[in-house]
């Protein structure tokens, strides 16, 4: 067997992300961390809005105008989705801490419940907000 440079280039690195597919429980774990960071950033927007309300009408109008803009609404929608996902996945982790639903099948099932619940709760929140 020869170790030519061409032979070395044809061998795939294993496992690499082009071939290896992360399982759903791993993806939900990664998403939980990402939504935690997103909640921190979104909370800064909320603090800015509250501080603007305390600072006076002009500052409040500026903050409210930004939040009501298309970019602000997208950010708030993402923050709402992150909040619901992080909450529901945190409850899932609490259930796991109680040594329940730890089998592989139950882990996939609970991951699907968390994702579906977060989508549903986000949509209900926004529909209720605009219906009021």
Report on the architecture of this protein.
- Its cofactor is heme.
- This is Succinate dehydrogenase cytochrome b556 subunit.
- With 132 residues, this protein is mainly alpha-helical.
- It has one domain (33-131): Up-down Bundle (3 helical TM bundles of succinate and fumarate reductases).
- It has helices spanning 5-10, 24-55, 57-68, 70-97, 104-131.
- Helix 2 (24-55) packs antiparallel against helix 3 and helix 2 (24-55) crosses helix 4 (70-97).
- The relative contact order is 0.10.
- The mean pLDDT is 91.
How is this fold's topology laid out?
Blueprint: H1 5-10, H2 24-55, H3 57-68, H4 70-97, H5 104-131
Helix pairs in contact: 2-3, 2-4, 4-5
In short:
By secondary structure, the chain is mainly alpha-helical.
Q: Tell me the number of structural domains.
A: 1
Percent helix, as a range, is: over 70%
Name the overall outline: extended
**CATH architecture tag:** Up-down Bundle
CATH topology: 3 helical TM bundles of succinate and fumarate reductases
Spell out the helices and strands N to C. Answer: HHHHH
CATH homologous superfamily (4th level) name = Fumarate reductase/succinate dehydrogenase, transmembrane subunit
Number of strands: 0
Strand content: under 5%
Given helix and strand content, the structural type is: mainly alpha
Which stretches of 5+ consecutive residues score pLDDT under 50?
none
So how many helices?
5
Mean pLDDT: 91
Main CATH class:
Mainly Alpha
The gyration radius over C-alpha positions equals 22 Å
User: How far apart lie the N and C ends?
Assistant: 73 Å
- Main sheet characteristics: none
């Amino acid at each position: 067997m020869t170790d030519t440079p061409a032979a070395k280039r044809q061998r795939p690195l294993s496992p690499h992300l082009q071939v290896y597919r992360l399982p759903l429980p791993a993806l939900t774990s990664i998403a939980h961390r990402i939504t935690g960071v997103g909640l921190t950033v979104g909370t800064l927007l909320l603090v800015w809005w509250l501080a603007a309300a305390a600072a006076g009408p002009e500052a409040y109008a500026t903050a409210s105008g930004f939040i009501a803009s298309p970019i602000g609404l997208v950010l708030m929608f993402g923050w709402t989705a992150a909040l619901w996902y992080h909450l529901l996945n945190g409850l899932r982790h609490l259930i796991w801490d109680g040594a329940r639903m730890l089998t592989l099948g139950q882990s996939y099932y609970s991951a699907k419940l968390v994702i579906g619940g977060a989508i549903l709760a986000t949509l209900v929140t926004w529909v209720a907000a605009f219906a009021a």
